[in-house]
Amino acid sequence: MDRIPIWVLLILIFLISPMAVSEEGEVKQALVQFMENLSPENNWGWNLTSDPCNDKWVGVTCLQNSVWRIVLEGLNLTGILNASSICMVKSLTVLSLKNNQIHGLIPGEIGKCKTLTGLYLSGNRFSGGLPDSLSQLGNLKRLDISDNNLSGELPDLPRISGLLTFLAQNNHLSGKIPNFDFYILKEFNLSNNNFSGPIPNLQDRFSADIFSEEKLDVAKKGVAGDSNGNKPSETSNELKFGLSTSEYSMTSVESSTATSTLVILTNPSMRELRFEDLLSAPAELLGRGKHGSLYKVMLNSGDNLAVKRINNLELSEEDFRRRMQKINLVRHPHVLPPVAFYCTKQERLMVYEYQPNGSLFQLLHGSHNDHTFDWGSRLSVAASIAEGLAYMHKELHQYGISHGNLKSTNILFDRNKHMHISEYGLMVVDNQKESFLPLTKGFKNNNLSGDRPYSTFKIDVFAFGVILLELLTGKLVQNNGFDLVTWVHSVVREEWTVEVFDRALQSEGASEERMVNLLKIALKCINPSPNERPSMAQVAAMIMTIKQEEEVGSVSFDAGSLIFL
Question: What is the C-alpha separation between 500 and 488, in angstroms, rounded?
């Protein structure tokens, strides 16, 4: 091959360098034009003589010197949305213009913002129809167009396969409602519109009230929502705190008057962490459930934290502090310890290290799972959960502190794919009666009137039994009213035991004998009578026996370490 003369390379470098500079200039110019079209009272520092990242333009968050998020909420912006300009920012993931007075159409050019994961336009004066190009935003996770003057039919939004939130209440939208995937959606609201036709099959995830004339905000039932279908109050502390209304920051209107401090429990590297650091850092809403909301918080240091805001305020401040300090004294490698907590009369926050490899629920039920979750790995996870729970039950038994909310979404995997039980002890004893028994209607509150601390540990055993069934069957705990526990009992009664097991396990040739033995343990755990359920120490010993038998004839599995193939 002939060598390229050095003078040719120099010319190419000379020609390419100005192109890179001019492209950066074009993006800055597009941002300034975008702001000018919004008709702000001032330009908030957005000008051509400064840099959006280095000079920290108002509302702009950067990642690796590229504009990542633009949040311009409540700034009395009265102009129009120039999508052609803003979509020139190829790294933009979040755009929020909530609670302004922006008018006009939502332009079709918004479909060019291909990297958007969150688009928040609520509380403005947008009018006209929604552009079909919205359905081209393939990365979009959250879309909020509520409280505007929008009209016409909805575009083909179900085409966006990963959409988790769609809020469009309080508009003038009409026509038929598209067939959304209600298994995936976590938030969905179309109330106060003019839709016609039949109500879609909500797959038992939402109440039909989301189409009514009432102003509702219904969260997904089950994993990320209230399993009882309760809707959050519009006057709750959650709205005041700001966490639920902003999925990319943790700004709190109460922070200015907060007198408590963040109590650091573990991790010496976090000793300098302050409550204000959590409030000012970018945050992403990971889920909202019956007992609170969970956020991923990205600190300036590069550390990622998971912050749980607890809804239940039954414990006094002092009791909550004592409870957290007792939990902090008990450590096990399979139980995720809290990094810190924050406690006032109005707020309860728990801070954990963020676990980047997802949850057991995602591993079992995720629609885009590229990993093989084989029998050996499932057995290893079951053994590790049992071992961790047994240890915590033993050490905290005298205080009556159980997990109280054990489920597959609370079984997390760290960067090394080691398993950790999260959120141990966040549920107080009085509420634990309702944690898992509603999953089996005939079992609800059965024989729970005795020794309350004893009973609450037995609810953990029941919950663990449900997780074992998930591991063995690969099925969801709740699926269109489908009761996993009842189904397993019915199959076992008919002596179709082999039909219980996940086909993936059968196809890999997993030992049917050992799967049946693990199923027997699960059935002991979900016994309708708490007094008849084994302790977690007994459960852990039984599972360890199965695991040792498995390891004799196959490759050993590191307890707590997940094997991804």
Answer: 7
| In a shared domain, residues 369 and 326 | no
Helix axis angle for 484-493 and 452-473, nearest 10°, is 70
Query: 118: closest CA among 247, 302, 290, 310?
Result: 247
User: 231 labelled as ligand-binding?
Assistant: no
- DSSP calls for 106-128: --GGGGG-TT-SEEE--SSEEEE
Same domain flag for 126 and 208: yes
Calpha distance 462→236 (Å, rounded):
32
Indicate the number of domains in the chain. 3
342 plus 368 within the same structural domain: no
Looking at the structure, tell me whether residues 214 and 245 fall in a common domain.
no
pLDDT at site 232? 33
Burial of 410: CB neighbours in 10 Å, binned 0-12, 13-18, 19+: buried
Q: At what angle do helices 536-552 and 452-473 cross, to 10 degrees?
A: 30
What are 215-252's pLDDT values in tens digits? 333 333 222 223 233 333 332 323 223 333 334 444 43
Residue 417 and residue 408: Cα distance in Å, rounded?
15
Q: Among 38-42, 108-112, 383-387, 492-496, which is the least confidently predicted range?
A: 492-496
Instruction: Give the helix ranges, DSSP H, for 245-316.
Output: 275-280
**Within a 13 Å sphere around the CA of 98, how many CA atoms are in the beta-carbon half?**
17
Residue 255 sits in a domain whose CATH number is: 3.30.200.20
